[in-house]
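Reminder: ligand-aware prediction takes two inputs, not one.
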Amino acid sequence: MSVAPTLLSVDGLSKSYGGVHAVRSVSFELRAGEILALIGPNGAGKSTCFDMLNGQNMPDSGRITLLGEDTVGRKPRAIWRLGVGRTFQITATFPTMTVRENVQVALVSYGRQLFNLWGSTAAYARGEAGRLLDLVGMGAYAERPCGELAYGDLKRLELAIALANQPRLLLMDEPTAGMAPRERIELMRLTARIAREQSIGVLFTEHDMDVVFEHADRILVLNRGSLIAEGSPEEVRGNREVRAIYLGEGLVYDARHREGAGA
Ligand SMILES: Nc1ncnc2c1ncn2[C@@H]1O[C@H](COP(=O)(O)OP(=O)(O)OP(=O)(O)O)[C@@H](O)[C@H]1O
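Here is what comes back for the chain with adenosine-5'-triphosphate:
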């Protein structure tokens, strides 16, 4: 069996703020088609780690190799251009534009064209936007103003926008924040299906353990900036240190789901 190529390799990543070691010598790899969750209690260092991968924050030390390129010091847009799609905790769409136009803007931006709703570039992007919207189950909403969308639909639109630059890697910072439990599972199921079909690697942070344990192939656990566990959901669930941290937070994965009852 062939092994999927490594998309992202992080080696000894560290960042401090004054005396606070937000991220301490974190190392891990992510392969094509793999769904990797980054979890940890509040203040564990997840966002700091994410922002360094995004190019929004500069590490004190360590290496980040993304699709074969060293990305430390590169700006977010340069990293996006390498083939990294992103979704954010707070959705960033244009509310007065239609759903389709929002995806068109992303497509045209990826092609480095000037956005013009009626030009030939827009005509091309129009068809491609429709394809992406169908992929995330939003085809029927294409002509609606984005501002009218329910929150869950907005998140699916955001996924279509993130897919517009044909990413090899998707970075999702709390993709299901603010969603109802059922919507969370559906969004991650959709993301996982698309990622596996298109061999896109996904790294996501998440507080909802049901989402994490149902959808992640592998889980990284941060605590006080350090990686304290890494492995399959089964391995992480059985890890004493992880259980101690999450029991302390009242967030331990519910035993009801162990036999797959929560799927
Ligand atoms: N800009 C900053 N200045 C000072 N301290 C910071 C800054 N950003 C993060 N920190 C500190 O670094 C540590 C890690 O924070 P970070 O936001 O990365 O954690 P997190 O795991 O994302 O937490 P949460 O789940 O609450 O979002 C915390 O102690 C936080 O207070």
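The chain has a mean pLDDT of 87. Residues 17, 20, 22, 40, 42-48 surround adenosine-5'-triphosphate (CB under 6 Å). We will return to this case in the review session.
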